[in-house]
Amino acid sequence: MSKLNKKLHSKIYTISYLTHFITRAFLIAVLCFFIIFGVLIVCYVGDLLLNANNSNKNPLFSTYVIVSPSMVPTIKINDAIVIKRVDNDEYKIGDIITFTSSDIRYENLMVTHRIINKENIGYKNSMYTTKGDNNLREDSTGVQTNAIQGRVIFKIPKVGYIKDFFSNPSNYFLCLLVPTVIFILYELGRMIIIIYKRKAFSI
Asked: Judging by DSSP bridges, how do beta strands 110-122 and 80-84 pair with one another?
């Protein structure tokens, strides 16, 4: 095999290896996402079935997109948060919670702030003082246990941009088009590599 063919074969092998690695990594990432998503769905549905007779109980998991800078830099605008219901009033100082505001300025709006104080006022019922990490003062109204939707367990940065993107129906077509084009380009690249390999070995 000539030096030119060796170099060509080496380049083809490198491209083939990188393509295979990237594709495999992408598929593994997608698989992990669906596994985590599936587990959350199973937990969510199971919790709904267990609490079917209790209409006052919040879902086990909920998600929200942050629209204000009150929790910057911990949670930024357009970050998505996943919250988990906490039973038996077991919220603690330092927890970030999402609750229904009783403040007349934000009445019935969902607010995500940090607990800075907790005062027991009854059986499995407390009054919480909350504050946004980016706010100078604590919230003017307290939060009772029954107004809390859940505790923030993790955030997903910038998901709000995705939500805005999908708010335009025409973008759904783009989401179908892009993967299709990527798949076609991948298959074309794979065919070109196979053809070059055959030519290299036939010389």
From this structure: unpaired
Of 138, 68, 77, the C-alpha closest to 109 is 68
- Find all residues with CB under 8 Å of 58, minimum gap 6, and list them: 85, 149, 150
**Could you read off the pLDDT of 62-78 as tens digits, one per residue?**
888 899 999 999 999 99
pTM confidence score: 0.65
Gyration radius (Cα) of the chain, Å? 26
